[in-house]
Automatic annotation (TrEMBL):
This is Response regulator. PANTHER family: STAGE II SPORULATION PROTEIN E, STAGE II SPORULATION PROTEIN E-RELATED. Residues 7-121 form the Response regulatory domain. The modification 4-aspartylphosphate is found at residue 56. Signal peptide: none annotated. Residues 124-155 form a coiled coil. Keywords: Coiled coil, Hydrolase, Phosphoprotein. GO terms for molecular function: phosphatase activity. GO terms for biological process: phosphorelay signal transduction system. The lineage of its organism: Bacteria, Pseudomonadati, Pseudomonadota, Gammaproteobacteria, Cellvibrionales.
Amino acid sequence: MSDLSRRLLIIDDDAPVRQSIAAYLHDSNYHVLEAANGAEGLALVQQQCPDLVITDLRMPGIDGLHVLQQLHEHSPDLPVIVISGAGVIGDVVSALRLGARDYLIKPILDMEVLVHSVAKALENRDLLMENQRYREKLEQANRGLRENLRVLERDQLAGRQVQRRLMPSRLLTAEGYEIAHHIVPSLYLSGDFVDYAHIRKRYLAFYLADVSGHGASSAFVTIWLKHLVSRMVREEGLFGDGDSFETGADLMLQTVNRELHETRLNHHLTFFVGVIDTHTHQMRYVVAGHLPMPILVQGDKAEYLQGQGRPVGIFKDAHWKVHKVALPENFSLICFSDGVLEIMPPKDLQEKEACLLDQVAGNAASLESVCDALSIRSINDAPDDIAILTITRGK
């Protein structure tokens, strides 16, 4: 848009031509500056910062091509229109190569052609400057985003370390029971959580929990769960013996269920909770919506444990049944979160469970052999959190 705020500089040694062009552009509402030669024109560019330059090509001393070259080097965004009476094609090519926006032949018979060329050049300059400002803002936003992502990544990594430290290390009892775990988070933080302990040097207590969702919010629930269950174990002796688990497992899940509803964490979770009497080799366990069921392997025989129960955090009035199983002298018990089913090739759930059973059957001697059989450690982008908990004896 033409207005007096736009400064135009005309460089031409032919005074009548220069003044004629200046008068017409002034009448077209432009603020016009004049220079009688190239040196004077370059000086005015430095002093007045015009929005556009119109220069004659053939001038004594510093000619139009030299002016173009200087402006191209030092003010590349400044649009330049070249006018000349010498219509030599070589000059046209040289001028355009040096960045001239237009080339007009003198005498200019229709000044509106020049006005149109000026308006078009200024419009293009405005677009370029607007794009430049947009790119600068975008780059600034990207820098801020990258910094925020770095901060978020650091926070996520710190949270991941906290979550890992809350989980136990591999445990081996005097009776030959070994319990270990491995977790593959789909993000930095996991909604899957395991915990286990050898209580009173007799009872091997453990659980695998799978919180709905992924990422930080689900991970926060696992930390909350860790402290809640630990408090119940300390205060109520939940896993102190088989009888306490018989009566306390349902109470524990009811407490977790009630707290989830009251705190409105907007998450539910599935549970597999168990306690093994390492003297009698009897296991009591509770299933709370957990899928797939743990796999019990004895020799070449592998089968899913039996049991069912509602997830925790969905139904306000829910109860859970305690199941019992006598463990053989040599066995492996492998518990998975449902994320493992996502990496099974079949599409049907029953076929996935059958595939998992087949892959585990001959590779259940240790946590490492299970992970190798399922290629767990090579997974980079898990579609869901994957937790594996193994309990072995006599392997």
